[in-house]
Amino acid sequence: MAQDDRIIAPGGTIGIVGGGQLGRMTALAAASLGYRCHIFCPENDSPAAQVAAEATVAPYEDTGALDRFAASVDVVTYEFENLPTPSFARMGALVPVRPHWRCLETTQDRVTEKDFVNAQGIPTAPYRAVDGPQALARALEELGRPAILKTTRLGYDGKGQVAIRDGDDPAEAWERMGGGAGILEGFVAFEREISAIVARGIDGTMANFDIVWNEHRDHILAATHAPAPIPAAQAREAMEISRRLAEALDLVGLLAVEMFVAPGGRLLVNELAARPHNSGHWTIDACVSSQFEQLVRAVAGLPLGDPGRHSDAVMENLLGDAIDAWPALLAEPGTKLHLYGKAQARPGRKMGHATRLYPLDSTIA
User: Fold this and answer.
1) DSSP letter for each residue of 256-290
2) CB 183: neighbour CB atoms within 10 A?
3) Of 41, 74, 111, 342, which has the most beta carbons under 10 Å away?
């Protein structure tokens, strides 16, 4: 689709839909380039609103609030996928939305997303769309067990996912998932998960960050290692996959691509995110330009920044009560602490992150 190629000069206002930590870090990066940010989200005192010039607190479907918000900003972007696409289509008639809302439409549904990836000739794990226990039973016969049943929408950090093993009842698994539309993914014996993040400007220029290795615990990202300990040829292939997908989406902004490294080195795309990504937080402290600065540059129509890595890094998520370690982390040499301004710690809730920096091209575990 045709892109609106207007450039938003410093001094303009960037509208960010979503009030979480990704919006917060985007607003901080925008401020460093001379932009104001206006946050739209349903929650009061959101992490993003705490550091923005203005905030609209309203439901994402509130058409009147959306129209007023769109009229008050020069460009709109977003910080997570689980948003109503009609709201963005509506705002897109009034102001540029970057990435455009069709990117959101593609990446917020797991079946649509995997269909799109496969249509570009890029492999994923085997999968089947399922709409009930009977369809699930048939899909299990085709894909085998173990397999993972997921909701097609709204699931993240392991939510809405059910592992199905030998002897498990498909009807019970369907009930545990919560019903609705689902996707069954075949089991992949992978060596590690990596992610590639690429920025793409309004002129089609692209810039990749180094490929990173992600460690998960209880389905939540625990740590990201930059760079990933993989062969250079494999890293180049991962970057090329991210570029092919960003171009096919005609994306302006950021695209994060999670991939499995399967036995033999084959790369399988797992998930896409057309926004900043948790596995890119290390770039704030270890790169010339962070993923958040790149997003601001892209959506404003500016030249992309230098994504070069000047340090090796390990980013650790601070989940729940792990935030209580903040005094020790502040005192730790070579460590940068980022807190998200959330008032209450809950198990699994991302309260902040710490990035440990190491000399460039060092060996880090």
Assistant:
1) EEEEEE-GGG-EEEEEEESS--GGGTTHHHHBSS-
2) 22
3) 41
| 109 close to 301: Cβ distance less than 8 angstroms | no
CB atoms within 10 A of CB 332: 13
* Separation in Å, CA 26 to CA 5, 81, 134, 292: 21, 16, 44, 5
The DSSP call for residue 1 is -
Maximum mean pLDDT: which of 79-93, 141-155, 248-262: 248-262
| Measured distance CA(175)–CA(162) in Å, rounded | 10
Do strands 36-41 and 54-57 pair parallel, antiparallel, or not at all (unpaired)? parallel
Q: ∠ at Cα 85 (80, 91), nearest 5°?
A: 100
CA distance 345 to 25: 19
pLDDT category of residue 81 using cuts at 50, 70 and 90: confident
- Cα–Cα separations (whole angstroms), residue 112 to 123, 130, 149, 200, 307: 14, 13, 16, 22, 30
**DSSP H helices in the chain:** 21-32, 63-72, 85-92, 101-107, 110-119, 133-143, 170-177, 232-249, 283-286, 291-300, 326-331
All structural domains of the chain, each given as residue ranges with its CATH number in brackets, are: 13-107 (3.40.50.20), 126-186 (3.30.1490.20), 192-358 (3.30.470.20)
* CA–CA distance, 70 with 13 (Å, rounded to integer): 10
Sign (positive or negative) of CA dihedral 332, 256, 177, 165: negative
Residue 226's pLDDT is: 98
